[in-house]
Give the backbone structure.
Amino acid sequence: MGVETLFFDPDRYFSQLLIDIEQAKSEVILETYIFKLDEVGQQFVSALQQACRRSVKVRLLVDGVGSYMDTRRLVSELESENCEIRIFHPLPWDFNVYKNGLSAGQKYSQLLYYIASINHRDHRKLCLIDGTIAWLGSFNITAGHYNRQLNQPEDRWHDTGLRTTGDVVEELKENFEQVWQRKGETRSRRTRQFLAIHAIGTRKQRGREIIEVLQQAKNRIWITNAYFNPSNRLLKSLKRAVRHNVSVMLIVPSRSDVSWFPYFARTYYADLLNAGIRVFEYSVQVIHSKTMLIDEAVLVGSTNLNYRSFVHDLEVDALVSDTDTVRQMEDKFEVDIEQSTEITLRRWRNYPLILKLLGWLPRMLRYWL
């Protein structure tokens, strides 16, 4: 039986995660989409360096796009006898970090592989400590979650993190190892997997598992998600839930770090509202959370409800059912609802035509978004 703690504030999340890293005895695994060497990132570099000096084994996996600006500095500052750094799908022209890529072989074969994989990213946020503690959620390693206003809480992003112990930690580590060990794959095996669409099949399987959980809901599906661009199967699952008297509510941002995404998400409102799904737009903070309340369980992780997360990117989520955790998420959702504007069909019809058109243009590319 594990112990779960939810975090909504970046100060608490980062400070507690740093404490766990500082107290690590044997191993720290850190996987993140963005690792930026700003004031937050430098704190983590220092904590990881100190861990290495204590002979703690450190493995760091960052994405080649999300962490592009700082990958070389991360390697130079952290790589040592006790710290190994790997980069998930470096950009094809970033030759200097090929040696840290997740693929073996000659540079020409790596180049072809990275060109073919350029749209597939590691969007996960995961930290495993001593095989007993797991951290995951929507927080990257960057001060960006403060929206650069460290002294103004209202400007902090709306994020959710989870610290958990118990059996799920072992499962998360096994999942991480499957990604990390790709470094040893031969070019021929990578080619066979690519031709067999092995990786995309794995990502789609995770998406199917989330939908299967939704389809089992009996009472409620309460969703907070940053980038809502649902697949047809997901939409059908939510509509089916309403028909079976399940309460389905959705909180999405009215403003986003991706400026056009709220207009894009609004193109789904009429369909959702006609099906009986309640939609709320939240404007107090920039929503970056990816959470669901499904009956008496909470899903927390990095998965957005869009094609990119379900088809193109690596993601990680945990489903927990601890009573206190569920209650904490309920309280947070209800506060967010109170601070949101409920969308009605009348309100949707009154949106300016130009804003509707701005939303429909990305629909032609929704598979990639």
Remarks:
- The radius of gyration is 21 Å.
- The longest helix spans residues 198-215.
